[in-house]
Amino acid sequence: MCGIVAAIAKRNVTVILLEGLKRLEYRGYDSAGLALLEPDSHALITRKVVGKVAALEEAVDGARGNVGIAHTRWATHGKPNHINAHPHTSGSVAIVHNGIIENYQTLRDQLIAKGYVFASQTDSEVIAHLMHEALKTEASLVAALQTTVQQLRGAFSIAAMQADNPNVIAVAKKDSPLVIGVGIEENYVASDPLALRQVTDRFVYLQDNETAEITLQGYTIYNVGGEAVEREIERATDEIESIDKGEFRHFMLKEIFEQPKALKDTLMGRTGNDAVLEQAFGSEASDIFDQVKAVQIVACGTSYHAGIVAKYWLEDWAGIPCNVEVASEYRYRKTVTLPNTLFVTISQSGQTADTLAALDKSKSQGYLASLAICNVASSALVRNSDLVFLTQAGIEIGVASTKAFTTQLIALQLLAIALGRRSNINAEREKQLVKGLMDLPVFAAAVLQLNSHIQTISHHFTERHHSLFLGRGVQYPIAMEGALKIKEISYIHAEAYPSGELKHGPLALVDSDMPVVAVAPSGDLLEKIKSNLEEVAARGGKLYVFADENAGFTNDEQTTVINIPHCQESIAPIIYTLPLQLLSYHVAVNKGTDVDQPRNLAKSVTVE
Ligand code: G6P
Q: Which residues of this protein are catalytic (predicted)?
């Protein structure tokens, strides 16, 4: 999604801006641009490109500036083209914007009536013209921005600069992330601190409805009433993580192979003496968990699938009713809250707009407390939740989520055990479940050995247009996740079904052109899955069965079996996810798609 980087310094800031944009590239975007104030003349220079930041770097072609704002755009209003790329200008003002201005059409009409001419189809351009208009009466850039944001409805983070006012950058935030990076005689702004980690580890987080003025010497934050507010500087404690692919061809493959480590890191310090350490969820966790009678989970995309897996665990092991819903539905629906319900959000980024809005809504719905399961410590989701479990997946660059998902499943399994030990899970069972978790890194490494076998099989999918993914019980959401991965990166239509539902529709689609992927670990439902698969084979369907090595599946003309090392049932959903990730990866590579940045998708969906 869109990214913002801005800087003011005594030196040339183009390197800071371009490096910052590169660090945000993984989030997905379609065009990029920057504006600079030329050091001597203070003339406004803008450069825009459709495509990658590397192309912008070429377009910059040695241009210099001591003040600059830069942007990667993910199109919402208006096509991804040169004109719609940011920055947008009006006279001497230049702005970049993340988010959506909901009332832009009204504002646009009003501005046109005043004689403004619009160059683009974007909603963002109104901001530049509103600021230009406001500067006719306001004395400073930040005052003009304050007047402007009062007229905006929707979500925004904005950075603005002005040729006539060369010593300042003005910024504003509402429902879209923005952080000030603090340097020594230079200061920065970004939509994500990651963009600035190469220049600082000191950050000041803006809150909603705040504006700020950034200069060489410092910054002043203003609340909605225009009064200056104090805010502590937070020091980023994370190590600067490498964002290079190493020996791997794509980030996604690297991240799939990082899972043994990510799982191990996420478990570290979260169990002890064969039991779950509840402090992993926060110091208040035990008191809150004592009162939990139900769980409501809200998330999007892959994180939503993790939530569905958790429903099986919470209801089966802990006997706790659990409802799971996608955030975009939950946030706008009239919902009913059962007494003593824990509200759980799951998000890799902690920045997904719908999930943040759902958390916001939950605060007025009578929940017991909120818990965020998240991979980014500095995110808004983490900062706004009562309890937090930080997954330790490390930075995830590939748009298709892999290691974030499996580490979320660890967090959710630990939650199910922690809640369940108050009722259904005795010490012996807890010990067995914890042992299963401790075995995870080894099993994950073992299953990754299947990579070349899966690569061979992947060729059977390359020319297909549709595919079906089947699972039963807790493996049904794993089949959903497998289908989502195929869709996201190989652009093959994939549907997931609980295999018991086959007869109620999807069987009509089955023929020799439709690969059917089944997830079949050992367990109570194995025999039922086998008969479901017989139904597919009888209709000439081609089966690809990811099965426990002891499950007794055999290869034949119609059936390809991928044997998975036998593991404890409680960790099977996590283990079976990995070969499905590998399958989608190889199919996408065969098809030659942009694996890490698939078309039309973004890593962090920071707008509705
Ligand atoms: C986007 C990403 C997905 C991700 C989803 C939710 O759609 O492409 O990979 O699962 O957002 O993101 P979150 O950061 O909230 O987990």
A: 2 (nucleophile), 603 (for fru-6p isomerization activity)
pLDDT (0 to 100) of residue 533: 85
CA of 299 to the centre of ligand 1 (A): 9
pLDDT of amino acid 239: 56
- Cα of 99 from ligand 1 centre, angstroms: 17
pLDDT digits 0-9 by tens, 345-366: 999 999 999 999 999 999 999 9
Residue ranges of the domains in the chain?
3-235, 242-448, 451-608
Question: 242-448 in CATH: which number?
Answer: 3.40.50.10490
403-420 vs 427-448: helix crossing angle, rounded to 10:
170
352 close to ligand 1 (CB < 6 Angstrom): yes
Mutate to test the pocket of ligand 1, among 382, 390, 401 (most ligand atoms within 8 A of CB): 401
Closest CA to 320 of 299, 336, 298, 340: 340
Domain 3-235 indexed as CATH 3.40.1700.10: no
CA torsion 361-364-365-367 (nearest 10°) is 100
**pLDDT score at 421:** 96
Distance 349 CA to ligand 1 centre (A): 7
Same fold, 242-448 and 451-608: yes
Mean pLDDT in consecutive groups of 10 residues from the start of the chain, 608 residues: 93 96 86 95 95 95 96 88 96 95 96 97 97 97 98 95 95 94 96 93 95 97 96 79 81 97 94 92 95 98 98 97 98 96 97 95 98 91 94 92 98 98 95 97 97 96 94 96 97 94 88 91 81 85 93 90 95 98 98 91 81
375 C-beta closer than 6 A to ligand 1: no
* Distance from the first to the final alpha carbon of the chain: 11
Which CATH fold would you assign to the domain 451-608?
Answer: Rossmann fold (3.40.50)
CA distance 588 to 47: 33
Phi, psi of 142 (to 5 degrees): -70, -35
Mind telling me the catalytic residues?
2, 603
Residue ranges in 88-237 assigned as alpha helix (H): 104-113, 125-134, 141-149
Decide: 399 in ligand 1 pocket, CB within 6 A: yes
Residue reference for tokens 């803008």? 46
Q: Residue type for 340, please? A: N
- 434-to-269, 271, 571 alpha-carbon distances in Å: 12, 7, 10
| pLDDT for the residue numbered 349 | 93
C-beta 300 within 6 A of ligand 1? yes
The Cα 413–Cα 410 span in angstroms is 5
